[in-house]
Amino acid sequence: MLLDMMEVEHRAAAMAAEYFMTLIWGAPAMLGSFVMAGWFLGMQNSKVTMWISILTVIVNIAVSLTLTLALNLGIYGLPWARSRRNGSDLQLRHRVRSEIQSVISQIHNHFCRN
Q: Residue 73: exposed, middle, or buried by beta-carbon count in 10 A (0-12, 13-18, 19+)?
């Protein structure tokens, strides 16, 4: 609809629609990642958020190059790579958050017993 208003060529509109329909599969992971980033920032731990973001951007670059060039998916490989980045970002943030909560729980148990 928006592309029709912009008077985009049919081929470009079809590619944009395919890109969007592939990219949208990563939306739940992206939203979860935003929630986890907010949790880290709320816990005054912005370095973890920064390092996870840097790591997942590097992964995105590698996967994008692999899908678009090595596997010859062209532009259609980019949304798949971005969706994978969103998933790995969420998984990494969740794992780090679990580790931090485990350490906090151990410290709390140590001091509450004494």
A: middle
pTM value is 0.67
CA-wise closest residue to 77 among 37, 22, 114, 31: 22
Q: At 36, list the tokens.
A: 């986890």
pLDDT(108) > 70: yes
- Per the document, the length of the chain is 114
Judge contact between 89 and 33, C-beta under 8 A. yes
Q: Which of 92, 100, 81 is nearest to 54 (CA)?
A: 92
Kindly give the residue spans of alpha helices, DSSP state H, lying in 43-76. Answer: 46-65
Q: Token pair of 66, please?
A: 């692999």
User: Quick one: what percent of the chain has pLDDT higher than 90?
Assistant: 0
